[in-house]
Specification:
Length: 209
């Protein structure tokens, strides 16, 4: 399937779903006032992607990278690429004023994450097992969701992220999640209190930055 012949400028929502697209060649370059959805295709690359306030590349199992993504758009609100095969954060800029959702991919590390978010960072269902120095990679964010990752080490850095209001980690209502959320915004004293609480609850391996 090809997008050859489509207009360069589109108003409203733009969706090509389940069409076995492998490339975004000939894609419209501007969509005004709507969402862009390329779900359930066979994309190999996002190069040539158009500008929109809401981009969704979910359910492209052949998509391994976001390199080539055009995100120089001040109106961007959501970037979603869940249920793909993305392995790293290449192609993403340093700062986001919007939400980034990369659920159920092949991500194994937090290294290379963009540093600032206007709202949410959602990385559920990946293979991330260590959050060492997450505060050095993610400097500002309101909400972080890491559920469904085999996290075993170093979660206290979450407490050093500027503006963080809510963390979702492990299963909903877990003791670890409760401890972290109870001490958000308390700075160094919160880190000490959370460390003691994690050790007391037998989660000592998590009680590091």
């Amino acid at each position: 399937t090809s997008m050859k012949g489509l207009p360069k400028h589109v108003s409203g929502n733009f969706r090509i779903i389940g069409a076995s697209l492998q490339t975004l060649e000939y894609s419209p370059q501007i969509v005004e006032g709507g969402k862009v959805n390329y779900n359930f295709n066979r994309l190999l690359s996002v190069e040539g992607c158009l500008k929109s306030s809401n981009l969704d590349f979910s359910h492209n199992p052949t998509l391994e990278t976001l390199e080539g993504l055009n995100v120089n758009n001040p109106e961007m609100r959501w970037l979603i690429a869940s249920n793909c095969s993305i392995k790293d954060y290449k192609g993403l800029p340093y700062r986001y004023e919007f939400n980034l959702e990369l659920n159920n991919n092949q991500l194994t590390t937090i290294e290379g994450l963009p540093a600032e978010y206007g709202q949410s960072l959602i990385l559920s269902g990946n293979k991330i097992d260590n959050l060492q120095d997450i505060h050095r990679h993610v400097k500002k964010c309101k909400n972080i969701c890491l559920r469904g990752n085999p996290i075993k080490y170093n979660i206290l850095g979450l407490l050093k992220i500027e503006g963080l209001e809510k963390v979702q980690i492990f299963e909903e209502g877990s003791e670890v999640e409760r401890i972290i959320n109870n001490h958000l915004g308390e700075r160094n004293i919160g880190i000490m209190r959370a460390c003691k609480a994690l050790i007391k609850a037998n989660f000592g391996e998590l009680a590091y930055l």
